[in-house]
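chain below, 533 aa
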Amino acid sequence: MEVDYVVVGAGSAGCVLAARLSEDPAVRVCLLEAGSADSSVLIHCPAGLALMARNQQANWGFSTVPQPGLDGRRGYQPRGKVLGGSSSINAMIYTRGHRADYDHWAAQGNPGWSFEEVLPYFRRAEHNERGADALHGTGGPLNVMDLRSPNPAAAAFVEAGVQAGYARNDDFNGPEQEGVGPYQVTHRNGERHSAAKGYLHPAMARANLQVITGARATRVLLDGRRATGVEFVVDGTTERVTARREVLLSAGAFLSAQLLMLSGIGPGAHLQSMGIATVLDLPGVGQHLHDHVDVVQVYDAPGQHELFGLSLPGAVRVVKGIFEWRDRRSGMLTTNFAEAGGFLRSTPDEPIPDLQLHFVIGKLVDHGRKTQFGHGYSCHVCLLRPRSRGSVSLASADPAAAPLIDPNFLADADDMARMVRGFRLMRTLLAQPALARYGAREYASSAAAQSDAQIEGFIRAHADTIYHPVGSCRMGTGPQDVVDTRLRVRGIDRLRVVDASIMPRIVGGNTNAPTIMIGEKAADMIREDARAA
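prediction:
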């Protein structure tokens, strides 16, 4: 099979690339996805998120190597393995980060990536049901809206934040990010609106786009230092697809780096230790991995049945909610659970927020994988710009083997100091009168942590990812950078990486919308380069 472009990975960026590039009927595109079609009701019903956390449906379910900063624990790393990628299993929060994040990218030697230069791509991607303005778009593929049936506890959290001295902010993607408020979500008509729904499904009727599910890419095919296609396995059979123009890797921060290394592109000594012939010694591949480290406080609120929880009254409400969602796409099952939050500064001296809160209308323990009886709520605090850096490396030369994932959480002492301050700020906010009516009590495991040393101990025992790995194929001009500012792999022709792995530094917010923006900008650059060729 021969096409113009091969896209590896139907996640947030891959769906954008496949849809945008196939807009030209003269261009043939093949999209390879290791997972299945996004047909499960658990994907489309927003509250299905709670059940997906308990199984491997649509999820790679990776683990980290033991983390010294987390008392030697292995962290959990869920990643989407389905059309839509992680946008089909995430909490559907639409945030872009702070404008200073993109200006920092540009200042580090990446012209074209300042906030004013990427804003048109955010606006082009977006259909915000609130309407268009200088910062928001309408008519784009990705539907963004306010929750249809918000839980009263989310409003109480926002009120508590105001009582704690923070400004109310109803638009974290507006002129100012700082404050507390409700999150907008990637929903449409009460359903999840993933990148697959927004971009890919409308494009799949095109004769020039072929989508192959169950297709695990095993290596990039190379002619010297020129990418010519992709080898992949589907139904146990090894197949190849040839790219007349370019190969585009959109497999995410873990698997794009892994695929480069399996193809002989990466740190030479590491490749040799795996028995892989080095095509290009590119030392930055797999390096500079980082993520938003996060810790949760959980509160028990007996008898508060409007909150999610396991009880007989709670089950009755869920049954009612099933019928409300089935018949009208409304009701409690339209929740994304993390309905409200905030962007805060850990000290007044911080120029911009360095912490993010996610308020969850249920008791969340171990990513929702541990059963908690009764009702309550939870709150996350995550560090927006960690200094710690880790890596992705190969466990073996077997493409089916999971990579070795080492975020190196909390290796930098500054990260822990900020997390301790954030933990205290979160506790103070949750103690405000607006939440007092729930009569909630903090779980003993965190309530016992009062001194800085005790809080640090709690964080090391309980912190983990909030699902935003980036940086393993970093964009830039230095010797450790993997792609240039047009996302072309340095030293290899006709090969790009287009996903969150290219971020020079993680953005201060959830990474789904920025990854979609990266896909939109990349599609324009790919078409421009094709016209100039």
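The chain has a mean pLDDT of 96. The domain at 1-67+77-143+190-289+395-401+471-533 is CATH 3.50.50.60 (FAD/NAD(P)-binding domain).
thats it, cya
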